[in-house]
Amino acid sequence: MSKKDKTLKGTKTPSRRKFFKVAAATGVAAVAASTLAAPAVAADRVEVAIVTTWPRDFPGLGTGAQRFAKRLMDMSDGRFQVKYFASGERVKAFDSFDEVASGNAQMYHAADYYWVGKDKTWGYFTAVPFGLTYTEVNAWIRFGGGQQLWDELAGKFGLKNFLCGNTGVQMGGWFNKKINSAKDLKGLKMRIPGLGGQVMAKLGASPVSLPGGQIYENLVSGAIDATEWVGPWNDEIMKFHEAAKYYYYPGMHEPGSLLACGCNKSWLTSLSKSDQLMIEAAASMENDVMMSEYNAKNGAALSRLINDHGVKLMKFNDKTYDAFAGAAEEVFAEVVASSDLAARTHKSMTKARKDIGGWAKLSDQAYVAQRNRALGV
Ligand code: CA
Q: Could you give the residue ranges of the DSSP H alpha helices within 84-189?
């Protein structure tokens, strides 16, 4: 084992540069991806190719998708013959959608907002600014009409999608100056994709979309002034603290980014009811497990960032947040005008935000606020 490999496997916070170097090398070397494990049973097996938008072993997102793939194989005692392809191993990250919609592969694991170029409505099935948290989005998808709207959208492309992971509330991002009001965002070049980026643009910033592997270099060189990514656990690995010291919370742009298992619908419906349920169950389990992992690891990573790396934790003030909210309304007006389905999905999401969010305010949020106040947590 090389020194580089030891570094990757042996430390809790692997070097970001080494991580991407190895991830890139793996992508090239693993054009023919390997089967996850030797099958126990070969009879009437179901071949499943999963393509993803994540580099191999990418913490949280990639490792979660890989865990889901392995679970599907293990749950079926190897009857599901799963071949997992990280981004670039079979198709490029953003070609995953077409690979599954066309039937070349059976499933993708991705953030569905990557497909907003095909239909703006996809954004609602990952996260939208001022949208739903993990708890709220699960309730909306399962009991608030969300899954039906998702099915309607996915069905237009020959897909059927399931909840399959979540990052939770994302951090607002890394800045090299204080943001005291929306005025401080003017002229700022920030890596922030999707509708969140459009909100920033309304406030005078210049949003850019960069894949994960290119953000650090751009931040260090000054080509961009700021970036968001995910949260402390993932951001620490990216070493953004070497280039920007102000770490803002809470992010308005991705309050509970859900990850999707997208299945080719005609393939899925050709399977037995039992097999279909196994896929849904494996996906639903990952939805829970990934969120648990983020919640367990973010706090410790945040402490290291502050105590070991001198990061200054900052909270967006009310004035800035109100400006975000106003800009988000302008962005939503454009999204709603794009199609009838987008309009109905927006209406359904905002109803969930009021009804489900209203209950969360009186239950989880009210309790946690009182517990922490009383005990000084
Ligand atoms: Ca993000």
A: 96-101, 134-143, 146-155
pLDDT digit string, tens, across residues 209-238: 887 778 999 999 999 999 999 999 999 999
Query: Which percentage of the chain shows pLDDT scores above 70?
Result: 89
The superfamily (CATH) of domain 42-167+256-294 is: Bacterial extracellular solute-binding protein, family 7 (3.40.190.170)
For residue 247 the two structure tokens come to 């770490």
Could you give the CA distance from residue 288 to residue 368 in angstroms, rounded to a whole number?
A: 21
End-to-end CA distance of the chain: 44
If residue 315 lies in a helix (H) or strand (E), which one and from where to where? Answer: strand 312-315
- Which SS3 state, helix, strand or coil, does residue 175 take? strand
Amino acid of residue 58? F
- Cis, bond preceding 250 (omega within 30 deg of 0): yes
- Cα 162 to ligand 1 centre (Å): 20
Measure the CA–CA gap between 312 and 248, rounded to whole angstroms.
8
Mark out the alpha helices in 43-193 (DSSP H runs).
61-75, 96-101, 134-143, 146-155
User: Domain coordinates of the chain in residue numbers?
Assistant: 42-167+256-294
CB atoms within 10 A of CB 96: 26
Average pLDDT over all residues of the chain:
90
In this structure, the strands spanning 226-227 and 189-191 are: parallel
Q: How far is the CA of 171 from the centre of ligand 1 (A)?
A: 8
Q: How many whole angstroms separate alpha carbon 268 and alpha carbon 280? A: 11
| 277 CA distance to ligand 1 middle (Å) | 30
By CB atoms closer than 10 A (0-12, 13-18, 19+), residue 199 is buried
- Indicate left, alpha or beta for 128 from its phi (over 0: left) and psi (-120 to 50: alpha): beta
Interval between CA 86 and ligand 1 midpoint (Å): 19
176 C-alpha vs ligand 1 centroid, how far in Å? 18
Q: For 253-308, what is each residue's pLDDT tens digit?
A: 999 999 999 999 999 999 999 999 999 999 999 999 999 999 999 999 999 999 99
- Lowest mean pLDDT of 21-25, 46-50, 362-366, name the range: 21-25
Locus of tokens 């947590």: 377
User: Using one digit for the tens of pLDDT, what is the confidence trace for 77-107?
Assistant: 999 999 999 999 999 999 999 999 999 999 9
